[in-house]
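Usage example:
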Amino acid sequence: MIVQEGDLVLLYFSEDRHYIVKVTRGSTYSFNEGVIRAEDLLGRHYGEVLRTHIGVKFRVVRPSLLDVVYRKFERRTQVIYPKDAALIALKAGVGPGSRIVEAGTGSGCLTAVLAYLVRPSGVVYTYEVRREFIEVARRNLRMLGLEEYVVFKEADVREGIEEQNIDAVVLDLAEPWAVLHHAYKALRNGGVLACFLPTINQVERTVEEARRTGFIMVEAEELLERRYKVRRGETRPELRMVGHTGYLVFARKP
Amino acid sequence: MIVQEGDLVLLYFSEDRHYIVKVTRGSTYSFNEGVIRAEDLLGRHYGEVLRTHIGVKFRVVRPSLLDVVYRKFERRTQVIYPKDAALIALKAGVGPGSRIVEAGTGSGCLTAVLAYLVRPSGVVYTYEVRREFIEVARRNLRMLGLEEYVVFKEADVREGIEEQNIDAVVLDLAEPWAVLHHAYKALRNGGVLACFLPTINQVERTVEEARRTGFIMVEAEELLERRYKVRRGETRPELRMVGHTGYLVFARKP
Amino acid sequence: MIVQEGDLVLLYFSEDRHYIVKVTRGSTYSFNEGVIRAEDLLGRHYGEVLRTHIGVKFRVVRPSLLDVVYRKFERRTQVIYPKDAALIALKAGVGPGSRIVEAGTGSGCLTAVLAYLVRPSGVVYTYEVRREFIEVARRNLRMLGLEEYVVFKEADVREGIEEQNIDAVVLDLAEPWAVLHHAYKALRNGGVLACFLPTINQVERTVEEARRTGFIMVEAEELLERRYKVRRGETRPELRMVGHTGYLVFARKP
Amino acid sequence: MIVQEGDLVLLYFSEDRHYIVKVTRGSTYSFNEGVIRAEDLLGRHYGEVLRTHIGVKFRVVRPSLLDVVYRKFERRTQVIYPKDAALIALKAGVGPGSRIVEAGTGSGCLTAVLAYLVRPSGVVYTYEVRREFIEVARRNLRMLGLEEYVVFKEADVREGIEEQNIDAVVLDLAEPWAVLHHAYKALRNGGVLACFLPTINQVERTVEEARRTGFIMVEAEELLERRYKVRRGETRPELRMVGHTGYLVFARKP
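Running the assembly step on the lines above writes:
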C-alpha cells in the first residue's frame, strides 16, 4: 500500500515519539527529529523506513481509527475515552446498519466511532445546539471520510427526537433525564439507551428517571483503566492513572 | 415488529427475572412464573405484555447482541468479558469490512462480537485446535446468523497463519508469544495485535516477545468494571465485584 | 512462651485451614481434622507441632490482634474492614495516650483496634444506644483484655458528647451530620474527625455539614483492596474482590 | 494550649493553602499571603486567628502526625504512603510495647509511624546501610520527639538481624527475599513479616521464598486510594489518582 495525497500517516520515531500528519502536497512537517516534506512521503510504501533532513530514521505507518480520533481531532470539549466509547458501542449493539441517535455531538469523537461502526448502511443522527461544535465535528469526521454516515442536526434534543425506530440513543449531556421520554419514543423495542455522566448525582437522577419513564434493565457502572509498565523483572502498574472519566448508565426499551 | 419462528426473545418479568428463549413451534418454556408456549409468542408484536398460564405478566423484548452471546451461548471455556471484548474490538479498529484473525476460538463469544462488527464484507478467520470447541462455536454463531462471516479453521495457530494483509490478530491463548512472528507476518502495515492474558507473567513475556518481533506501540493494561446500586439517597458501588478478568496487550505492525 | 488457661490460640493445619480457639480447661475442639482437648494444648510451647486424635498435624500459633477481632469476635452488625480501620486510626493519629470518642460501638471491632492503640494511658469513650450491642462489644473487648481502656456509654451521641479536649472523634453512624457540632465541641484544636460512610449521599451530606460546622481540611476518599494469587509464573489478582466497604471522610478542628 | 518554642505549627489560610513551620525564636516565615514572625505565634492559643504583615488571616492549628511526617520530613527516598503504612502497622499488630525490626530506614517516614505507635515501652530497631539516610531519618524523628524509641543500626540486614523475639519485621528493600531467613529467626511465634514491594516480580519472589522459609498465612495484596471531589450535586472521584504505590506481602512465623 502506498502513501497518497490526503492520507493520514503516523510517523514513528520511537515508542515515545510518533506523530500523525495529513499528507498534502507542498506541506512540510517539523519535529525535534528534523523536517519532512510531503513529497518525501508520497508514493512510498507504508512500512518503509525513511529519514528526516538531518538523517533521523522513522517509519511510515498507517494510523488506527483511535489514533486519528484521539490525537488528530480538533477538540472543543471534554471527550469520551476509548474504554467508555467501546463499552457504549458494544452494549448498544452498534454495528453495520445500526441507526443511532446521539446528543450532544461535542467534538465528534464518539460520533466518529459510531459512524465507523454503522457503515455502510447505517446512520448516526447527532444533535448539537452549538453550531461551532457541529462545524468542528464535521471537519473531524471528514478527516476520516465518515461524514456521509452522519446527519448533523443543529437542534436541542430536549425539544424532541424526530427519528423513529432507532437502535440506540447515546447521551452525553449535562441533564440527560430531560431527554429520556424522547429517547424512549425514538427507540425500537429492545433498543438501548446509553448515557455518559461525570457525576454520581447525575447517575442517581438519570437512573431514577429511566425507571420512571418505563425503561428496563437499568444499569450503572464505571470502568477504571490501569496501564502497566512492563519490563522483565520490573513489571508494575503505571504510577499515575486517570482516576475518573465518567459513569455509564444503560437501559432498554421494553 | 413481530415474533417469528426461530427468533431469540427476551421474556421480561422484572429487573431480577428475565429469560432468553428461542421460539420454535411446539416448544414450551417453564419458569417459576409459569409456563409459556411458543404459540403464545408467535405473531405477537415485540413490546407486548402477555401472561403465563398462571397469569404472571411479562414483556416480549428483542434481546441485544450481548444478551445472546453472554446468556445464551453454550460455554465450554472461560469467556472474555464484554468490557474486554469491547476495548479489543475498538483498539483493533474492527469494523465493517475488517479482515480479522482470531485464535483460539473457544466458545466463540469474542468471535461473535468480531463477526457482528465486520459484516457484511469482512471476515473472521478463527483458529482452534479442539474440534469440539469449533462445533460449539459454530452452533453459537449460527444462533445469531453470523456463521457466514466466519471461517473456522481446525489448526494450531503456532504452526502458522495462512492469511495475509490482515487488519488485526486477536489472541486468547495460553502462550501467545509463540505466535507473534506469525501474527506479524499476517498483519498489514499498521495492523493491530491484541492479546488477552490472565496472568501478569504472560503479559511480561508477551510484551517482551512483541518488542523483539518488531511490533511497535506495545501497551499493556487492564480494565476494572465497577457496578453501582442506585437508589435515591442510598447510592453506592455493588458490594462484590469481579476482581480480575485478564490483562490486555496491544501492539502494531510498523 | 507457653500456652496458658484463657489463651486464644490459632491452630494451624494448612493455608486454607486454621482455627482460633480459647483454651479453657475441660474443653474439646472438633474439626474435620479431628478432635483436640484443651489439656493437649496447655503447657505446650507456642510453635510446637501437635496432632489431633486421628493423627493430623497442626501448629500452635499465637494469633494476631486482627485474627481475634475479625475471626473470633461475636458480630451483630456490619464491621469496618481492617484497611479502613487502619487508615482511620493513622490519619486520626491514634496512639498511646490518645483520648478518642467513638460512635456507634456496634460489635466493637473498631473499638478494639482503637483501644489496643491508646494503651496504657489513653481511653476510648464509645457511644451506643442499643444496650445489647454494648454487651456484645464488652464481651469482645474482654476477650482481648482491652476492656479497661474503654468507657462504654449507653447514650445517643446525637444528644451530645460529654468529653472535652478529645484527640479524635470516629463516627460510624447512619447520620453523622447530626453529630458534627457535638464532635466539633468535643475535639481539641487540630483534633481529627473521621467518618465511615456506606453511601455517596452520606458523603455529600457529611462533607457539606463538616464545612458548615467550621471543620477544615475536609477530605473524602475510599480504599480498594486487591488480593493476589501468587504462584511462580501464574501470578494474577484474585478473581473476586470486595467492590465496596465504605467511604471515609476526614476533617480537622481548626 | 499555647504555641511554644520548638512547636511544629500548621498555618491554615484556606483548603488549598496551609503550611507547616517550626516555631523558633527569631525566625520569619514568608508566603504568598505575607510574612509571619515566630514572635507573632509564640504564646498564642492554638486555634486563634491571626494576620500576616499584609493582613491576610490565618489559623494556628496543631498538625497531625501525618502532616509532619509527609509534609515536613526531609526526603531522600521514595516513601511509603499512609494507606500502606497504616495497613502494615495494623496487620503487624504494632502497638504500645511492640518490638519491631525495620529495614531499610530510608527517610524514616515509616519508622516514625512505627515509633509513634510503640511508645512508651516498645522499640523500633531500624537497619540502614547508607549513613546519610540514617542521619536524615534521625533528624526527622527528632522533629517529632520520637528518636528515643528508635535504635538506628548502620548495618546490612542481609548479614543478619541481631534482635530476638521480635513482634514484627517490616521490610522495604529491593531484595527482601535475601533477608527472610533472618526475619524468621528474629520473630517470635506468631510474629508478622510485612514487606512493601514496588514490582509484581518482587512479590512473586518474596512470596515463594517466604513459603520456602517456613512462613505461614502468606498473603499478597495492594490498596488503591481514590479521592473524591465533593460538592452538592456535583460529586465525583478526582480526575487523577495515584495508580500504584506498591504491593504488600504479609506472613507469620508459626
